[in-house]
Design goal:
Elements: H1 2-25, H2 27-34, H3 40-50, H4 54-66, H5 72-77, E1 99-100, E2 107-108
Antiparallel strand pairs: 1-2
This protein binds zinc ion.
């Protein structure tokens, strides 16, 4: 009875140890995923295949922490764009009234009765 109890406790301890071990093993991948890292897949593969070695595990962990987030480069560039926008041109006020001949298209004085270029009658 005691032996069976001890065995089941050992089983639970081993399962718990494996679970904790796997959780620690994949910490770099979890960090990369939570940060939505740009190179998540590469970090995960490095973590998966080289995580057993301390160097590979630390490398994938550092990579996960240093990797840029998706779209962070666009976000840093966008706010500076409106500064380069050209100044609005001053409103064009019609100081000189210009009329156009309906036949030849030349500019004529608005009070002229006939076009100075072609003699066309103006309204
Ligand atoms: Zn004309």
């Amino acid at each position: 009875m005691d032996h069976l109890f001890f065995g089941s406790m050992m089983m639970i301890a081993v399962i718990a140890a494996i679970t904790v071990g796997v959780a620690i093993y994949f910490i770099p991948s979890v960090i990369a995923y939570s940060r939505s890292a740009r190179n998540f897949l590469a970090i995960f593969l490095l973590n998966l295949f080289l995580g057993w070695s301390l160097l590979g595990w630390l490398g994938s962990l550092i990579w996960a922490l240093l990797d840029e987030k998706r779209g962070s480069q666009q976000g840093s560039v966008a706010p500076s764009a409106p500064v380069a926008a050209p100044l609005p041109s001053p409103p064009t006020t019609a100081t000189t009234v210009v009329a156009y001949c309906s036949r030849c298209g030349q500019t004529v004085a608005p009070d002229d009765r006939y076009c100075a270029h072609c003699g066309h009658g103006l309204p």
